[in-house]
Design brief:
The chain has about 100 residues and is mainly alpha-helical. The protein contains 4 helices and no strands.
């Protein structure tokens, strides 16, 4: 239940920030006559802005800098995994030798 309330609070905070920064949305919401119309208007704005954010995020993730850093991170992770695997094998061999004695 604690996670749910935390999630709800985060969503509420994000929506509040969105309303505070989007002047056109605030103006349009003041003109609505019913809660249903306000919900439809909010959904329309969120959909439009969501598409813009998704395009910007995609462009950012596909940028050369991010791709370079991602490939570096993959190499580092692979090297660390190999190192951990070797160490685990050493420990297994040592434990096997100890149990045979």
């Amino acid at each position: 239940m604690k996670r749910f309330s935390l999630l709800l609070g985060a969503i509420g905070g994000a929506l509040g920030g969105y309303l505070l920064t989007n002047e056109k949305l605030r103006t349009d919401l003041m003109k609505t006559k019913s809660p249903e119309a306000a919900a439809k208007l909010l959904g329309k704005h969120l959909q439009t802005d969501g598409k813009k954010i998704a395009k910007e995020a995609k462009a950012f993730l596909e940028s050369d800098d991010v791709q370079k850093n991602l490939s570096k991170a993959k190499k580092l992770a692979t090297a660390k995994f190999k190192e951990a695997k070797k160490e685990a094998n050493r420990l297994i061999k040592r434990a096997t030798k100890g149990s045979e004695a």
